[in-house]
Amino acid sequence: MKKQDLIKAVATKASLSQDAAAKVLNAIIDVVTAELKKGGEVVVTGFGAFKVSNRAARQWVNPRTWAKIKIPAMKSPVFRSGKTFKEAIR
């Protein structure tokens, strides 16, 4: 499902126009992104949690040339699904 398909589905389910559903979805994405940039966590009870994980610097070897490359430390977004969401999928 692509973003536009999600917007259509949400609009239908919530009896909204597609424009209104798109604004809501974009606002949610903006709020989650802003909170994660600040180092916070966004928890949606029953669905899951978004947080930032710090990845340590590490060495990587190119399997074709065997050249060693150092990958710097970085922050990475992580989603941890909630119990209710997991059970609904199973």
Describe the structure in your own words.
The chain has two domains: 38 residues, no CATH class; 49 residues, HU Protein, Chain A, CATH 4.10.520. It contains three helices and five strands. A three-stranded antiparallel beta sheet has the order 1-2-5. Helix 1 packs across helix 2. 2% of the residues are buried. The mean pLDDT is 94.
What order do the helices and strands come in, and which of them pair?
Layout: H1 3-14, H2 18-37, E1 42-44, E2 48-55, E3 58-61, E4 68-71, E5 74-81, H3 83-89
Antiparallel strand pairs: 1-2, 2-5, 3-4
Any idea what the CATH architecture of the largest domain is?
Irregular
- Rg value: 19 Å
* Strand composition percent: 25-35%
What is the assigned CATH homologous superfamily of the largest domain? IHF-like DNA-binding proteins
The CATH class of the largest domain is Few Secondary Structures
Helix content: 40-55%
State the end-to-end distance.
19 Å
Order of helices and strands: HHEEEEEH
- Average pLDDT rating: 94
- Looking at CATH, which topology of the largest domain would you report? HU Protein, Chain A
Shape: elongated
Structural class label: alpha+beta
Taken together, the total number of domains comes to: 2
Strand neighbour order, sheet with most strands: 1-2-5
- Major beta sheet summary: 3 strands, antiparallel
Number of helices: 3
Low-confidence stretches: none
